[in-house]
From TrEMBL:
Keywords of this entry: Hydrolase, Metal-binding, Protease
Keyword Protease belongs to the record: yes
Domain of life: Eukaryota
Lineage: Eukaryota, Sar, Alveolata, Ciliophora, Postciliodesmatophora
Originating organism: Blepharisma stoltei
GO molecular function: metal ion binding; peptidase activity
GO BP: proteolysis
InterPro entries: Cyt/Met_Dipeptidase, Peptidase_M20
Protein name, entry field: Uncharacterized protein
Length: 466
């Protein structure tokens, strides 16, 4: 079976999935958070059509699909393939179709909506995050059917708001709960990997708080000759942020945002430290250094400690247009990562309290928040699934599968655990540390996608045989 599966999947990736992704990349659709006209400009519908058009071209037996639409909510793709025989159980496969905003700085020959294959990598916005997931899932089902390999009932969900915080996903999952059934295994294909030599399974994700802070002290700008009397709003903001973070070390100062790190996390970090090198994947300036040179602590910091980043700012003119003016206000967007197990709403409440209590100089502090996203930790897998993962990895990568924590978030995980408490969650993906997700030069390694897809296909086959 293994060789036939490999041959068909490799061929399907090269001749079907990659051309589909190139068409998908050409569509300038963005997640609703970044496109106020998503309901009228037709880009989201065009992207969905590219994906569903490929699915239809495969002529999968007993496959039906529907685009579920609700007023004011981005549509969601619901696909269903009946099992080859009764009693084989259900598998849920999740991916998303929406994309992050466009970015400058792409390598020559590639751009956000200009797909290019360079040195075995497909470049373009949304290919690896997460456009590949839906067509690859469809290809796997078709491959199993072509080889007459039994498979369970397979449900495919394609979201269009993941990059906007999955604000309506819980609504859709509850609406579709009876149609989805009780999945025994759920694949989330939106995660990252440590290298391109192994099959990787994510065993933890951090949560995230998105908080916009505005410091306002005067109603209109004043000549900077007034400094010394009028406090600068940026200086006030710095004081507020110093309540949250030690700016010298980067350590978060609020105990409520920390968790007791399990001892096995340090052991796991030590085991993968020689493989995962986040530092090497970063384009540092000459002489630039990481927070710590300790590779184990780099992994622990990135996956199990809270951190703060300023990811956006307003209230500043460009340098070219900056005059001698004390600005009326300073606004920043904070991205605060939370360790697994931290209560998101409670953490957000604590941060807001620190930002708004006793404002220096009587400044007005304005806060806007998104819904908190909590972290997640993988629960022990059933023996058949653990064995299937390792068997697939050995067959298609020649090495054991590896487990590791990811510093980012996937909003889906907490919802799935709540709505489908009995499902086994398998979080995986194809994004390497050099994949440029959310930035310029987003890319996917085609050879990795081929072998990765074989592993997922093998697990689907094992699910039906368990």
């Amino acid at each position: 079976m293994a060789q036939n599966l490999r041959n068909l999947i490799f061929k399907g990736i090269d001749e079907g999935v990659i051309p589909t992704l190139m068409d998908f990349i050409r569509v300038p659709n963005l997640s609703p958070l970044y496109d106020s006209e998503w309901e009228t400009n037709g880009r989201m519908e065009q992207a969905i059509s590219v994906i569903t058009g490929y699915m239809d071209s495969l002529n999968i037996r007993n496959f039906t699909k529907e685009i579920i639409r609700e007023p004011g909510k981005a549509p969601i793709l619901f696909g269903e393939v009946q099992a080859t025989q009764p009693g084989l159980g259900t598998v849920l496969i999740y991916g998303h179709i929406d994309k992050q905003p466009h970015f400058t700085g792409w390598i020559e020959g590639a751009n956000n909506t200009e797909p290019a294959i360079i040195n075995g990598k497909l470049y373009g916005r949304g290919g690896g995050d997460d456009g590949y997931s839906m067509p690859t899932a469809a290809l796997l089902v078709k491959t199993l059917q072509t080889l007459e390999i039994p498979h369970g009932r397979i449900v495919i969900i394609g979201e269009n708001e993941e990059e906007s915080g999955s604000i309506n996903l819980k609504y859709y999952l509850n609406k579709l709960k009876d149609r989805i059934g009780e999945p025994e295994v759920t694949f989330c294909l939106d995660s990252g990997i440590g290298d391109y030599e192994h099959f990787w399974i994510t065993n933890s994700l951090r949560g995230v708080l998105k908080i916009d802070v505005t410091v306002r002290l005067i109603n209109e700008g004043v000549h900077s000759g007034g400094s010394g009397v009028i406090p600068d709003s940026f200086r006030i903001l710095r004081q507020l942020l110093d309540r949250i973070e030690d700016s010298k070390s980067g350590e978060i100062l609020l105990p409520e945002l920390h968790t007791q790190i399990p001892p096995e996390i340090y052991a796991q970090a030590a085991a993968t430290a020689s493989i995962i090198d986040e530092v090497k994947s970063v384009s540092w300036v000459s002489g630039g250094k990481p927070v710590t040179e300790d590779k184990v602590m780099q992994t622990v910091n990135q996956t199990w400690k809270p951190t703060l980043c300023v990811v956006g700012a307003e209230g500043f003119p460009t340098i070219q247009n900056a005059g001698n003016l004390i600005r009326p206000y300073t606004s920043v967007r904070l991205s605060i990562r939370l360790p697994p197990g931290i209560n998101g709403p409670a953490a957000q409440e604590r941060v807001i309290h620190e930002l708004t209590r006793d404002p220096p100089y009587g400044a007005h502090i304005e806060i806007k928040t998104a819904k908190p996203n909590e972290g997640w930790r993988l629960q022990p897998l059933s023996p058949w699934l653990s064995e299937s993962i390792q068997r697939a990895s050995q067959e298609y990568f020649g090495k054991d599968a590896l487990y590791f924590g990811v510093g980012g978030s996937i909003h889906l995980m907490g919802m799935l655990a709540e709505i489908f408490p009995s499902t086994e969650l398998l979080v995986t993906g194809i994004l390497g540390t050099d994949s440029g997700a959310h930035s310029c030069n987003e890319n996917l390694r085609i050879d990795y996608l081929r072998s990765f897809a074989c592993c997922v296909g093998s697990i689907l086959a094992d699910h039906a045989r368990k």
